[in-house]
Write a structure and sequence with these properties.
The chain is mainly α. It contains three helices and two strands. The protein has one domain (24-119). A hairpin with a 6-residue loop joins strand 1 (2-5) and strand 2 (12-15). Helix 1 packs antiparallel against helix 2 and helix 2 (56-82) packs antiparallel against helix 3.
Length: 120
């Protein structure tokens, strides 16, 4: 049994996590950490863009990937924050369903801008 304090309430709430739920929770947090770490690598590459001699297309793609990875990490953080709200605790993981439309739209916009960028 795990005791967790609710930041909105001074009472302690006890809940049980089964092995499968802990595994799912760890996989989500590992994925968010992985995206955040990859984002930091792209940010580092962006800071060294002149030393790496990135051309204009590579700079364009790097900026896009930084925003894309930031979006994935932000949605993970939002899901974790919503899990602390008692009324939304059971529904907080549904925020992950936003990933598909958000990332799909950003991919389409990026592809169109990249094609226009390459034509110049």
């Amino acid at each position: 049994m795990i005791l967790a304090s609710n930041p909105c309430d001074r009472d302690f709430v006890s809940f049980h996590l089964r092995g499968r739920e802990v595994t799912r929770l760890e996989s989500f947090s590992d994925a968010v950490f992985g995206f955040a770490l990859t984002q930091l690598l792209y940010l580092h590459a962006w800071r060294l863009r002149d030393a790496l001699e990135l051309n204009d297309v590579e700079r364009f793609d790097t900026r896009y990937l930084i925003v894309r990875l930031s979006t994935v990490a932000a949605i993970g953080v939002i899901a974790a924050a919503l899990a602390w709200v008692p009324a939304l605790r059971n529904w907080s993981s549904l925020i992950y369903f936003l990933l598909f439309p958000v990332l799909r739209v950003s991919r389409i916009v990026h592809r169109r801008r990249r094609e226009a960028f390459l034509k110049e």
